[in-house]
Amino acid sequence: MRNICDQKLASIMENFEKVWQRSCSSSSASSSSKDTNHEVGDPFAEYAIRPMVVTNCSEYVVAHARRELLPARQFTEVSLLPHILETMRKLGLNKLLRLQSYTWPHLAGGAGHGAMIVGAPGSGRTFSYVPPVCHAVCKAITESRSTLSGLKPGAWQPDQQGAKALILVPDLRRVRQVSALCHALLRKAYKEDWFTLILNVPSTKSSEFFLRLLNGVGCLVATPAQLVWFWQEAPGLMRFPCLQFLVYDDVDLMSVEQLQGVQQVLQEILPLTHSPQVVMVSQSYSSTLMAKLRALNDQPALVFGDIMEAALYGGTHIRISLVRSSAKVNAVVQLLQQRPPDNYRTVIYCADDWDLQRLEMALNDQGYDCLPYYQTSDLAVREQVHGWQANSRGVILLCTDNCPELSIRDAHTLIHHSMSVSWSKFKMRHLMLSDNLHNSLASRANPVRVSLHSLVLLADNNHRELPRLVDFLQLRQEVDPGVVAVAKRIRQEMGKAKSDQKALCSQILVLGKCYDPVCPDRHHVNHLDRRPDYMPASGDVKVQLVKVYSPTHFCVRILEHMPLQGSWQSLPSPAVQELRMQLKLEKEAPRYWPLVVGAICIYHSTITKERVRVLKVANIQNVNIVQSDLSVEVQALDTDTRIFSTTCGRLFECPEAMQREPPMACDLRLLGLVPYSGERSWTKEDCRNVKYMLTQLPKEHFLQAKIQFAAAGTLYVRNLVAIVYADQFKVHLRHLNLAQRLIKTTLVKRCEKATNMILNFFEDVFIDKDIGEEEEKEKDAQESKESVESEPKGTVEDPEKHPTSLLSGRCLRLAQIALEVGKENQLQQELLETKSTIEDASNNQMAKPSTETKEDARPQSNKDPLSELYECFMNCARLQLEDKKESVQNSSHAATDPVDPANQAQIQIQLPHNVVRPSVTYYQTTTTLEFQVSLPEDDYEYQTMLFESQLFFRAISKSSELIQQFILTLRFPLGVLRHHIKGRTVYISITKSLACSYPLAFGEYRFLKPNHDGFDKQYDPRKRALQRLSRCLKDFGYIKQDIELQDRSEESEDEERNLDGIERGDYNEIID
């Protein structure tokens, strides 16, 4: 994380506010976007979260404290500074959320008022503490300003050093989000250059960071690892004597080691005169963390936005029972016998009124009195419910989720006869127990506590809710192992039935565990994660680096494999495989529909075709209607292993033969290496450094690794080394040991815990692999035998099947000749074999030795014809390059007569793979030369420049790495360059120095095409004027009648194609 100064943050947040206003559809946000400045390239904008855009907001909150907490009903009841309230209104915060209505007044109470906020992600937890923290920081800045007003300019006050508020977040992404929110509220607080409002910890040691801390900081936002790091850099320098707030945001996502390191640092930097207000934000309640908060603040508060979490905190025991639908009544009766309704106020939830009526009849038969509350109940039933609340008298209340008017908060037993239609409604059922929850913060001891119980009955029709419920309860209480096993099996079955095959979570593949509670990726293994037979499971491999995703994650291509106690085995060359793949892809294929998850198809991009695997498909309403704009998530198989989204209109069917071909690329990860700083990911700068390290290796090198295991299309290795061959000593030397280099540079560290967790995660895959290995081998052997018997030996592909090819020029002609010669040789060989068969039939006695002699004498070759052809092309190109080098070196006129650079560029100069020529049309008028550049997408940003007689154009996309670029040389005097973009077309106009028509010889630029409509605009007025003059002259008899001229000859197609880029005039018109 780089150091961001106050001025930079101010300009960033101006754009940050505008981004929020653009994303907001309300009128208040739209009207406030007129007077803000916009800055391109805002690093905070992509991390901005509009406060009111929340997904798990609850209208009810459980709040406990030493005394009763009174919520604020509107903004006027909250004592916040005016500019903070104004900024919140501009950000779209027009009303208080229920969670914020309790936390803002309490935290505004001053010293000693701490709080633990428990809620689900996206429920407004972060904004529950940000405004009060910013309010306290602004007041502290104002007080320090009055203190410094009497000092001399430039004087330093040691009591003002450090941060006024310290906010700790679990990862770097949250650092940027919280920093953006705080600066949006603080940017109008102070305008001094030496004071920093928001400060982040840089990834490298920086003296500016420590100077800013000494001069004073409003809010310091950092991760636990960053806090420990900068303290270790200057252990005796950092003190926070004016610290007002200490915030742990997402404290449940911080590891025990991180919290211990933070605690050691806080013992050194916290002020000795007072304790800061402590705020802890978590998804689940922790008694250990609550004890630490109570030790620092004498007025703590506990605010629950998650009602089910509050029920568990208050002593409710939640039990899951797996029963059949017919046995639910017996399970209910059994619990009623254990907890009689006369002693425990009981509420039973049903799915609907029909389910409620059946349960009422069943319980009446068992001798229990029930009070059913239907959706159609009248006021008389409401009066009965009020009487039941005063004294239940052993009556059981039956209700559904569709009765929000019931305000019952003092139940003791809660029975879920049927599950809710949503998870949020199920959690809200526990609000009926809220008044009986134990308040651990109350100053006075509570009266005799009554045990609270919640029974969940799951049958065959609602067993899909079991995995989520088990995951929730496992973190908070003991769950029956049998129920856990059933939930795991149900999750696997649901994963197979889903129409998606999401990629595995990246945190699991690195750390062995996911710490993100709302991670959208997959967190369980399935049959597709088993190691395929074409991927090596052990031994050593030599690989070719394709892409660097992170310091421990790479995309590679396997070149050679050496099994355990074996020798090196060469695999097909990647260049040969790519050539073969492109030749097969030239044939047009039909659209792929309907889409099936896990299928292999062909993705057509703007310039290439490649194989991809379908991972996720949007819901298809009707398979009989072919769509072209359906969203699809796919993973590349050959160029790299990237995962990206596209539309189904770009996917085409892949032939079965190509589907059986193994992927050319695979993932490679260094097992057991985790970020050294304790973070859960690396920065982009770290990835760039590792990429530079691996791309600056000597030319004659190869990468080698030892495989630990393979799963999910990934090779897990312990290390990756670069080896070079020393010609002088005739030995191979290890040039780079990547793991040691990363550990030495304190970028990664070994973690055996992560290694064991990754192995345990893939344990089921290894077991399934061992069970089905023999069956798969027998099946593949049978299929390969049938395919070998059905296909003729020595077949060569017909070049007529590939009318177009990626090869061009001399290489294309050589390829065609080679394929034709191969076909002729094959036909001759078949004729010879037929002739020998006929001779064998007439001479039975000599047939056998003669045949054996011929077969033995015939030379055998196991080499692939395409491989030999590729090697031939490479040798020819290499010899041509050597000839040119020798001709340049041996020429005595090298200094005076240099070699034409255009001739050298034919082989030496090659465009990068991501640079292409756009489609350009041109025409000229008398005064200007016009170009129209067509871009493939709308998100391209272009630049163009006219330097002397050359026109430069370059366009870069925001969503892809493809670059549109061309350079055009003009051979006549030019003037001013003008350009603009409209849609996907860039219009370029160049004013001529002389107003006349020039011959445009653009035939050498294949991407340039004449715009005949533009030329017609130039010649039409002249034609009409000349035609009028011609008619007048004919009427007066000054000229003879026109004589029709016939074309002398027709130009061939080749000549016409070569003149495609040259402007041709009309020879039949009259030129003045």
Automatic annotation (TrEMBL):
Residues 99-286 form the DEAD/DEAH-box helicase domain. InterPro entries: DEAD/DEAH_box_helicase_dom, P-loop_NTPase. It is an enzyme of class 3 (hydrolase). Keywords: ATP-binding, Helicase, Hydrolase, Nucleotide-binding, Repeat. It comes from the Eukaryota. The keyword RNA-binding does not apply. SUPFAM superfamilies: P-loop containing nucleoside triphosphate hydrolases. It catalyses: ATP + H2O = ADP + phosphate + H(+). Residues 778-803, 1058-1072 have a biased composition (Basic and acidic residues). Residues 774-805, 836-864, 1046-1072 are annotated as: Disordered. Its EC number is 3.6.4.13. One of its GO terms (biological process) is germ-line stem cell division. This is RNA helicase. It comes from Drosophila gunungcola (fruit fly). Residues 839-850 have a biased composition (Polar residues). GO terms for molecular function: ATP binding; hydrolase activity; nucleic acid binding; RNA helicase activity.
